[in-house]
UniProtKB/TrEMBL annotation:
Signal peptide: none
Gene source species: Galemys pyrenaicus
Ranges where the F-box domain occurs: 15-62
Pfam families, per the entry: F-box-like (PF12937)
Protein name (database record): F-box only protein 48
């Protein structure tokens, strides 16, 4: 075996090491990722995508994170029978926008024209009341 063959064998072993892990361990590793990390991992290869998209408990941590920002929305989706993954997908963008509003990210804007259109999303009256209250206390 020449050095080129050894190098190719090493590359194959390195690229397939994840396949050697039991599925339970792989799922545990994915459970440690945040939402953007899960999305990036799902784009890595078809096997990872299938595992991430079809294993609901991987989405428990991200769902709990969303619940801290959008408790009513998450509760409603769970009660309606949406999976954890679907609940995360339905509420992630809203939680990001709501978090930015509540943390004062848009406090220094003087006009609605200054708001980037891509950050806007539909929110209920209770959410706007929370945002207004936070703005008034700043």
């Amino acid at each position: 075996m020449n050095s080129l063959d050894v190098e190719n064998d090493n590359r194959e072993n390195q690229s397939n090491y994840f396949e050697l892990l039991p599925v339970e361990i792989t799922c545990y590793i994915f459970c440690l990722l945040d939402i953007p990390g899960l999305c990036r991992a799902s784009e890595t290869c078809q096997d990872w995508n299938d595992l991430i998209m079809n294993t609901d408990f991987i989405w428990k941590g991200p769902c709990l994170t969303l619940q801290s920002v959008c408790p009513k929305e998450v509760k409603n989706d769970v009660e309606k029978g949406y999976s954890l993954k679907e609940t995360v997908q339905r509420n992630y963008r809203k939680s990001q926008v709501k978090h930015k509003w509540l943390s004062g990210h848009f406090s220094n804007l003087h006009s609605s024209v200054s708001l980037p259109e891509e950050i806007m999303c539909q929110m209920d009256a209770d959410t706007w009341a929370l945002i207004l209250e936070a703005e008034l206390t700043r």
